Please model this.
Amino acid sequence: MSYLRAATTSVCILAASACLSASDRETASGYRGRIFPDPRPKIDFTLKDTEGADFGFRQETDGFVTLLFFGYTHCPDVCPIHMANIGAVLNGFPFELRRQFKVVFVSTDPERDTPERMRRWLDSFGTDFIGLTGPREQVNQIQVALGLPGSVIEETEGGEYLVGHSSSVLAFTKDNVAHVGYPFGTRQDDWAHDLPKLVDERWGSR
Amino acid sequence: MRWWCASSRGVAWDWTWQPYIGVWALVALLAVFYWLQVRKLPIPESPTERSRRRRQAILFGGGALALWSALDWPLGPLGSGYLASVHMVQYLLLALIGPPLLLLGLPGTSYDKLRAWPRALTVLRNTTQPLVAFFIFNVAVTVTHWPSLVDPLMRSQVGSFVLDISWLLAGIIFWWPLISPVPEWPRFAPIFKMAYLGLNGIMIRPPFFILLFSKFPAYATYELAPPIPGTSALSDQQLAAGIMKLGSALIMVVAMVLVFSDWVRSSQRQEPARADRF
Model:
């Protein structure tokens, strides 16, 4: 009898934990990302893409859901994890949905992130991911204008360095405003939940 | 310095060796325990007894080595912080390979000492009934692979230690009825031992389905760990499911072959004795 009780308890714990894992990340907004109390309008800036051409951010991303992230290719953790998770989810979407997104990665490490290196790195996550570089000061100004902290250099042993930067991905919807941000820790399941909703979102009617 | 392996804490994997004092302490405890078991044994006189004693030492040493390799660098940190597939190799070593070797390696006199603790003996007697052991093992394996339990536990060294030790204990309970080291507790006939092993080999537990068929990585621990070049969280998870199922099935098949050959040998030994009687 005691074994039967133990078995029932185990099954209940498992069922409860399964329910929790499915629903505990959704917020009242219906999104798993963080809703900004003050949405951040898209700003206009121009940087070089991995082909060396000028890329006008506002103009080139108009009409798309745009995921904007500031990072660097030598990043050991946050950048490759964010990019891998976004890439894995987008690559699983049907073409019609997939084509409504643009992923823009702005380098915070212009010295080491050559166009070739950046292209190779981004291709491992998504061949259509856009990589942009520009002077460090300009990139910092863009980050600050978007409400993100500027990046900072952190020296490490052996003359190497890390670049401290924001770990949030800004999601601009088709109204050219970022209403939601995705911090480090956002999982593929969360991206798959939120991204299709962002395509159809009409913020004004909420 | 960390005493036990836990999640990566955002540190990228590199091949720099790291000590894990808790793992060494566990292995040292096992060695001391074994020494305490054998130190007062009489020096074996017959070659058969000598070779049996040597065989036991090798088996126990093999069991301790299995645990050590599962828990220490590099499998320990890789499995607890970076790759679900390595985590599954750890599971095989801790639950399915180490425990039977440790049990087979202990001298029979060790079990006699248990008689000094009647309460422990009662618990052991109850938990190692074949059906109970089968149930405990399978519930333990299911629960200790459940993502919403594994992720919070793996964040701390204590949680990771609890998971590892749970596998070890569950493995000891699972193998006990098969090896039946206490002569007065003959568990079940070889045919039922083979059925016990076979059923466990084909048993499909919920975590296997989650790992193999989920569209997205199930464990945050591995999904949000600094990536290891050439791997993706989802393909690593699917590999983990394969290792869990095929590795476990392979171990069960090997055990079934050993039980069967032991059965045949003991039948052959009984034949001449029976013939003498007539």
Observations:
- Chain B has one domain: 21-277.
- Chain B has a mean pLDDT of 92.
- The interface with chain A takes residues 10-12, 132, 135, 139, 142-143, 146-149, 206, 215-217, 220, 223-227, 232-234 of chain B (CB under 8 Å).
- The two ends of chain B are 70 Å apart (CA to CA).
